[in-house]
Amino acid sequence: MSVITSITEGELTDFLSAYNLGELQSYQGITEGTVNTNYLLNINHQKYIFTVFEVLNKETAEHYLTLTEFLSKQALSCATPLLDNHQNSIRYIKGKPACLVSFLPGKSNQHPSPENCRQIGLYLAKMHINSQSFKPLSNPMGIEWRTEHALKIFTKLSLDDQQLLQAGLNIQKKIHWDLLPKSTIHYDLFRDNAFFEKDQLTGVIDFYYACFDVMLLDLAIAINDWCTNWQDKKFNISPVHFRALLNGYQTIRPFETLEQQELLLFLQLMSFHFWLTRTVNQHFPPIGESITLKDPNEFKKIFKNWLSITSLKI
Ligand SMILES: Nc1ncnc2c1ncn2[C@@H]1O[C@H](COP(=O)(O)OP(=O)(O)O)[C@@H](O)[C@H]1O
Ligand SMILES: N[C@@H](CCOP(=O)(O)O)C(=O)O
């Protein structure tokens, strides 16, 4: 449920008057998504997405929109902002920053094929290579965030889960953060954030966690979601999907030796990360926000699976 801010037709028409796009024919709230309010608009027989930022301020939201403009100029398909008559990508509605972005055709795929995974690997590698020079965005949900929030929920967990939490924090100490290559990373490339048409990737959305950090973080996030066998409740990784995603990535950007050595640590860390973010949201639902709660246990199981593995063949 993601229409947090309800918008009337009059308010929308008023907002759109700054764009000269034509007549608003229809608009419809979008129920998917967790953080922002999204509407699908039909203006002059063209589709657009109207987003109201529920958490981000104007400056931060603008940063992310600039990134999508930058990526689309590098032939990395994504939703890009429309500028109003004064060249602004953000305008206010009901006191909140909001924007209009292009509509990406296609649908997300909850049952990706190895070919879909290969295309996701290619996309990430192209993004990492092309956006190294993009103005760095800091990562507000990195090492410090994990440490601080693990402490915050520690006493709320069982003894077993407290040990698991400690294991997660220990992993981040084993990683050679300063020696690993960095770039601008998506940091949330889950299956619901990529669209396909006839098995071809049409583009990627939701760059609102993007930041400048170690590239392996993106690989680990994508592998944990795209290559997990979600149908059997053991949450094992499908070797075929795993290989396809890695091959796609390495066609464009082969791993450095240290990246090969530390990929397993990142797979462990990022499954721990989403167990943690989801558990934090459960215990401390953000006030005033309408966050859709996701199941932390799925990522707890994936984390435990990765912890039981001692080496990875790449
Ligand atoms: N540019 C776009 N083109 C087509 N559909 C989109 C676009 N942006 C968002 N959507 C739709 O809106 C949903 C929620 O968007 P998302 O960015 O994931 O929201 P949130 O930021 O709240 O997580 C997506 O699952 C998709 O169905
Ligand atoms: N992908 C994350 C949650 C982030 O939510 P999004 O709707 O903004 O992609 C998870 O699955 O926990």
Automatic annotation (TrEMBL):
InterPro entries linked: Aminoglycoside_PTrfase, Homoserine_kinase_II, Kinase-like_dom_sf, Pseudomonas-type_ThrB
Gene3D superfamilies xref list: 3.90.1200.10, Phosphorylase Kinase, domain 1
Keyword Zinc: no
Entries under SUPFAM superfamilies matching the protein: Protein kinase-like (PK-like)
Pathways per UniProt: Amino-acid biosynthesis; L-threonine biosynthesis; L-threonine from L-aspartate: step 4/5
EC number(s) from the headed UniProt entry: 2.7.1.39
Single GO term (MF): ATP binding
A biological-process GO annotation: threonine biosynthetic process
Enzyme class: transferase
A Pfam short name: APH
CDD domains registered for this protein in UniProt: HomoserineK_II
Annotated Aminoglycoside phosphotransferase domain residues: 27-232
Catalysed reactions listed for this entry: L-homoserine + ATP = O-phospho-L-homoserine + ADP + H(+)
Record's keyword terms, sorted: Amino-acid biosynthesis, ATP-binding, Kinase, Nucleotide-binding, Threonine biosynthesis, Transferase
Family from the record: Belongs to the pseudomonas-type ThrB family.
Cited HAMAP family: Homoser_kinase_2 (MF_00301)
PANTHER family: AMINOGLYCOSIDE PHOSPHOTRANSFERASE DOMAIN-CONTAINING PROTEIN (PTHR21064:SF6), AMINOGLYCOSIDE PHOSPHOTRANSFERASE DOMAIN-CONTAINING PROTEIN-RELATED (PTHR21064)
Record protein name field: Homoserine kinase
Gene name per UniProt: thrB_2
